[in-house]
Amino acid sequence: MVYAFYDLDQNGQFEMLVGSNQRDGSVYPKGFYYLKNGTPTLLAESYIGSASARGSHTIFTDGTILSVSWSPGMGDAEGTLYQLQEDSSEAVVIEERDDFKIPGSALAPLFGKTDEMILNLESLDWQRFELEQRSQDEAVSYQVFPEEMLGSWQGISSDFGKVNVEVFQDGRVISDIERSSSRETILVESIEEVGFNTYRHKLSSPNGNRPLVSVFQLGGAGIKYDFGFKLEDETLTILIWSVALNDDFDYTNPLEMNLILKRE
After folding, report:
1. Can you tell me whether residue 63 is helix, strand or coil?
2. Which residues contact 237 (CB under 8 A, 6 or more apart)?
């Protein structure tokens, strides 16, 4: 994960962009944060969500930002164009549309913009998120994952093809997915043992609540999800639990959909 600062509305207050490095060296934008009354607030993000819903955003040099979401099946999309107020108190909606499809629509002209107005992300000074330096004793206590989970794993997803995963002591999980355009990095903040060799995890912001590897299609009204993994016999199984919104999770009963990874 990388970040950069950019003064979108040219008022002297810099906003923060979060992205991920791609195989070709470019940066894929993941989230855009601004200070809403002094509090960091997520305005727009790019994601693969429940039921394979997609989201993306585009930043324009005139101080506006376009957030778009769509369904990859039918391609039905909706978009919202925002403008930050001069005092950074709120993001104002300038225009909303839901009469277009993705792919098949040139987004910039739909919202009165040109491609030349799109911010060149390569021009920004991107920096890697760096963890605070710790002493050797502190580093040992900080280790997020069990020792036997660290290293390289490989598996096959029926929808996304070959999956390569690298797990690091500091909580980073890097995924290379064959049928995905991005090399994804997430940061796990902590894990909790909920059964024999079975753990649920909590991700560090801005990752939100999601599986370690994004190869699942989730959806359904009135349902909540939790995510984790099982580590056993050189096998790492990515797990998902779901219950009704008002129910407690039963961690002995994960969904049948899972991703099984083996040591490389």
Report:
1. coil
2. 229, 230, 231, 258, 259, 260, 261
- List, in sequence order, the alpha helices (H) in the chain: 107-110, 136-142
- Which amino acid is residue 107, in one-letter code? L
Strand order in the sheet with 27-36: 39-45, 27-36, 15-21, 2-6, 127-128
Who's near 161: CB < 8 A, 6+ residues apart?
A: 177, 178, 179
257 pLDDT band, cuts 50/70/90, is confident
The residues facing 35 across adjacent strands are 40
Instruction: List the domains of the chain with CATH numbers.
Output: 2-127 (no CATH), 137-263 (2.40.128)
Residue 115: phi and psi, rounded to 5, are -60, -30
In angstroms, the Cα distances linking 56 to 67, 80, 87, 130, 263 are 6, 11, 26, 25, 33
pTM over 0.70: no
Alpha-carbon 211 to chain mean position: 10
In 3D, which of 233, 234, 239, 166 has the Cα closest to residue 198?
A: 239
Phi, psi dihedrals of residue 98, rounded to the nearest 5°: -140, 30
The gap from C-alpha 198 to its chain's centroid, in whole angstroms, comes to: 23
Q: What is the pLDDT of residues 168-187, one digit of tens each?
A: 887 888 888 887 766 778 88
